[in-house]
Write a structure and sequence with these properties.
Blueprint (H helix, E strand, L loop, with lengths): L35 E5 L3 E4 H15 L4 E4 L5 E5 L12 E9 L4 E6 L3 H12 L6 E5 L3
Antiparallel strand pairs: 1-6, 1-7, 2-5, 3-6, 4-5
Helix pairs in contact: 1-2
Length: about 140
């Protein structure tokens, strides 16, 4: 699974979810490396194990000829309190890492396979993620 080598702070602020306000991504919005990409259409916090699961599905679908790129990296720690613990007594312990994804961000890219195989691989990967996404082709 993906995680940073070192973080400046062990616990981060949770941040507000401004999904209803219509915030969209401004960086990483075009297919830059491959022929097809998976683009987010909704906001979500994607955890490192979800990214890894989607990556494995793409790798399995593409075979040896295809190449893939992961365009997101989970660098934000998330915390969780143990089960059956009462409220108060501070913030929970760090459990793993996640990335905040806004609409418009390209998450994965593939190349080296046909259109049908690329679309199939990316739609399978989209089912593993906690957001809605669409497959986009590169515009030349």
């Amino acid at each position: 699974m993906l995680f940073p080598k070192k973080v400046k702070f062990r616990k981060w602020h949770t941040m507000r979810r401004n999904a209803k306000r219509g915030k969209v991504e401004t960086r990483g919005i075009t297919v830059a490396f491959g022929s097809h990409g998976l683009k987010a259409t909704t906001h979500a916090r994607v955890r490192s194990n979800q990214i890894e699961s989607a990556r494995k599905v793409i790798a399995r679908s593409l075979g040896k000829t295809g190449k893939q790129w992961v365009r997101i990296f989970p660098d934000k720690p998330f915390t969780q309190k143990p089960p059956e613990v009462k409220l108060g007594k501070g913030k929970g312990d760090p459990q793993g890492y996640e990335v905040e994804v806004w609409p418009g961000r390209v998450l994965f890219e593939v190349d080296g396979v046909g259109d049908v195989a690329a679309i199939e691989a990316l739609t399978k990967a989209a089912k593993k993620l906690p957001l809605k996404a669409k497959v986009v082709a590169r515009t030349h």
